[in-house]
UniProtKB/TrEMBL annotation:
Domain of life: Bacteria
Chain ranges of the HTH merR-type domain: 12-80
Pfam family, any one: MerR_1
Residues in coiled coil: none
Family matches, as InterPro entries: DNA-bd_dom_put_sf (IPR009061), MerR-type_HTH_dom (IPR000551), MerR_fam (IPR047057)
Region described as Disordered: 135-159
Protein's name in the database: MerR family transcriptional regulator
Gene source species: Streptomyces hokutonensis
UniProt keyword annotations, A-Z: DNA-binding
Protein's UniProt keywords contain Cell division: no
CDD domains with a match to the protein in the record: HTH_MerR-like
Entry-linked PROSITE patterns: HTH_MERR_2
């Protein structure tokens, strides 16, 4: 470890060393500090010093961001130890994630349908047509062609 990484206290890191450890820019750590997510110590010269708790905190922030949580939500979570409040904060995030997963799954099914389609013209594939029909929705009576009394499917016809 460089002396600049340890200068302000044994086992602490400078802002540059901490940022490099996680592949972040130093301004990201300053922003997180301004939002109240990080609380680094200071050395005699006023420089930020990060210890083991800060390493854990940065790792936690990164994991929660990868899970799709925003910094404000992460801040709210860090401000509570109450289980009910934690659930109240996380429930909307879980619902949003479920919705995004469902949308991604539907997109994947459409793409895989195109990959597996044996027709030259993908618009002729039954899977593609089903997706279009679902998007269009049920037809209104005004959109339906008039039925001829001689139509085979007409239920008013007597045998």
């Amino acid at each position: 470890m460089k002396s600049s990484e340890v200068g302000g206290g044994a086992g602490t890191l400078s802002i540059g060393a901490l940022a490099a450890r996680f592949g972040l820019a130093t301004h990201v750590l300053r922003h997180w500090e301004a939002m109240g997510l990080l609380h680094p110590g200071r050395d005699a010269g006023g420089r930020r010093r990060y210890g083991a708790d800060d390493l854990n905190r940065v790792a936690t922030i990164l994991v929660l961001k990868e899970a799709g949580l925003g910094l404000n939500t992460i801040g709210s979570l860090s401000a509570t130890v109450d289980r009910a409040t934690r659930h109240e904060i996380l429930r909307p995030a879980a619902e949003e994630l479920r919705s995004r997963i469902a949308a991604a799954q539907a997109s994947l099914e459409l793409i895989e349908g195109g990959l597996n389609c044996e027709y030259e013209d993908v618009t002729q594939c039954p899977n593609y047509r089903r997706h279009l029909a679902e998007r269009i929705g049920p037809r209104s009576p005004a959109d339906q062609p008039p039925q001829d009394a001689s139509c085979a499917g007409n239920s008013s016809r007597s045998s």
